[in-house]
Amino acid sequence: MSGMNEFIAFVRRHRVAASIAFLLVMPLLMPYQALAVNILIFGLFAVGFNLLFGYTGLLSFGHAAFLGVGSYLTGIGMVHMGLPWGVAVLLGVASAALVGVVMGYLAIRTRGIYFSMVTLALAQIVYYAFYKAERWTGGENGLRGIQVPKMEVFGFTLDFLNPNTKYYVILAFVAVALWFVSRLLASPFGAVMEAVRENEKRAAACGYDVDRTKLLVFVISAAICGLAGALRALHLSVVPIESLHYLLSGQAVMMCLLGGMGTFFGPFIGAGVFLTLEDVVTTMTRHWMAVVGAVFMFFVLFFPAGIWGSFMKRLDKSS
Amino acid sequence: MSVQPILEVEGLSKHFGKFVALNKVTTSFMPGKLSAIIGPNGAGKSTFFNVVSGAFPPSEGRLKFNGRDITGLAQHEFARIGIAKSFQITNLFKQLSAHENVRVAVQARHARYQIFKPRAAMTEVADRASELLERVGLAVHAKRPASELAHGQQRALEVAMALAAEPELLLMDEPTAGMSPEETVVMMDLITALAAERSVILVEHKMKLVMGICERLLVLHHGEFLAEGTPADIKANADVRRVYLGQG
Fold first, then answer.
1. Minimum Cα–Cα distance from A206: chain B residue
2. Which residue in the set B53, B87, B116 is minimally distant from A183, CB to CB?
3. How large is the average pLDDT for residues A237-263?
4. Which of A25, A163, B8, B209 is least enclosed, having the fewest CB within 10 Å?
5. Does the distance separating the beta carbons of B118 and A183 come in below 8 Å?
C-alpha cells in the first residue's frame, strides 16, 4: 500500500511527464488516429480555457473565438501569405493572444453572468467578421488549401500525412504547452490566480491588482486556445467557419466540468470522454447530443468535481 | 520638530446618491497610537473605514498618508504603501488552507506577476506565513481549509493576512464582530500587542470594548465627528452621553 502511495506521490510531482506518457500511448487505446488527434487538440483547448474558468473563476462563453482565430490566422498565413507552417502557427497564436487582449480588456470590467455574456457577444462579433471577410476566410465554405505534406525539423523530414507522425508532431506542441501551464500553476502568479478566484476583495486588499491579473490570465488562456486552433488547422487542412461558433465555447465548458475544473489534467480527461462518447454514440443514433447531455448531467449532479477531480479527491482521502 | 501625522483626513465627504454618509470630516492620527472610531449604528463608521482603507474614493476631501496625498489610489495600492485592513465581514480565500491564505498575502510583497519561478522555492514567504499564523495562535490549524475554521479563528486569520503586508498602519473594522466573550478577550489582547509595534485604528460599535485599551476615541454621529479625546474625556462628554450612552 505504501508503495502505491509513493507511486501516486511520484506521479503528482511529475504531472507533466505523467500526462505526456499517457498521451504517448493514447493512440493505442483509440479506435483510430483522427479521434486521438482531436482529443489532443480539444484537450489543449480545454486546458487553456480551464486557466480562466477553473483557476481564476471567470466563466467565458467566448473561447471559440481564440480557437477560431488561431486556426484562421494559421491558415491565412499559409494560404494567402505563403508562410512556412511553423511561422504560420506562431502567427495564429499571436493573433489569438491579441484578440484576447481586446476581449479581455472589455470583458473584465464586468462580473458574473455579465462577464459571460460580454465574452459571448464579442466572440459573435469575431464570428461575423470572419464570416464576412470571404476573400480571406472563404466565408461559409471555410478556408481551404492548407497543406503540410512534409515537415523539415532539425534535418529530419516528417511525413505529416501519415496519421501516426501527425499525432506525435501535434503532441510535441501540446507537451510544451502542458509544461508551460504546469509551471504557471506552480508559480507565485498561479497562487494569485486562485486568490482572485476565491475572493477578489481580499486579493485587492493584499495588494494584488485584480484587473491586471485577470487580463494576464485571459491573454495566456487565449494564446493556449489559439495554439489548439493552429494545430487544428494543420490537422484538418481546412478551417471550417464552425471553428468560431459558440457551440465550441460551450463544449470547452462541458469538457472542463466533465473532467474536473481547476485540476491540471481534468480538462484533458473531459475532452477525451466527451469526444469518445460523441464518436461512439454517433454510430448508434443521430441523437448523440441527448446521450452526451445525460452523461454530463449525471456528472454535474453527482460528481460536481468531475471525473478527474473526484478521482483525485478519492486518492487524497485514501492516502 | 513636530511629528508628522501618519494619517490625515481633510474635509472628507461621501455621498451615496442624495444620502450623505460622511459630511466633511477632518482629523488626523499620530503614528504609534491605538485609536478607535466609535458611534451608534448608521453613524458612518463603515463608510469612514472604507474610504480611509481605499475600498472606494471619497466624494470630496483629501486623504494623506505620511504627508503624501493618497486620495483616489486603487485598493491594491493601499496595501503596497503600508495600509492594511481586516474586514468586518470575514473575507478569506475559503477553499485554500489557512497557511496558503497568509502565504498569498505575504507573497504580494515579493512576487505578483512572477510566472516562471516555482513558488515552492520561495521558502522565506512560506516561513513568514508560518510565523504570522503562530502569532495569531493558528499554527496548529495551518493545513485546514479556511472555510472549516471556527468564526473566531477566521477572524484571527483575517488579522494575520492584514499583518502579512507589514503595514505601518493597520485598520480594523469591528474585529470582534460575532465573537464569543472568550474569543473577544483573546482578540483584544492581540490588538493591544499589535498596537505596540504600529499605528492601529479600530472601528468599533461596542464602546465598552475600546474604552480600556485605546489612547484616543473619535465619536461619529450622523456622518460628523461629535467628539474626540481620551476615553475619560469621552465618558464625561455630555453630547456623547446623549446620543450614544443614553441609548444603550
1. B105
2. B116
3. 95
4. A25
5. yes
How many folded domains does chain B comprise? 2
pLDDT of residue A289: 87
pTM: 0.93
User: How far, in Å, CA of A93 to CA of A287, rounded?
Assistant: 35
User: In this structure, are B9 and B70 located in the same domain?
Assistant: yes
Closest in B78, B93, B107 to A188, CB measured: B107
Per-residue pLDDT tens for A78-110? 999 999 999 999 999 999 999 999 999 999 999
Domain-by-domain residue ranges, chain A? 31-247
Mean pLDDT to the nearest integer, B167-185: 92
For residue B229, give how far its alpha carbon lies from the nearest alpha carbon of chain A (Å).
Answer: 30
Query: Do the Cβ atoms of B118 and A194 come within 8 Å?
Result: no
Q: Which domain holds residue B237?
A: 1-82+170-188+197-248
Same domain, B75 and B1: yes
**Chain B residues in contact with A184 (beta carbon < 8 A):** 115
**Is it the case that residue B5 has pLDDT exceeding 60?**
yes
Beta strands in chain A (DSSP E): 150-153, 156-159
For residue range B120-157, list pLDDT tens digits in order: 999 999 999 999 999 999 999 999 999 999 999 999 99
The whole-angstrom separation of Cα A232 and Cα A68 is 9
Q: What is the ipTM of this complex?
A: 0.92
Question: What's the CA gap between A33 and B204, in Å, rounded?
Answer: 67
Query: Sign of torsion, CA B182 B194 B229 B212?
Result: positive
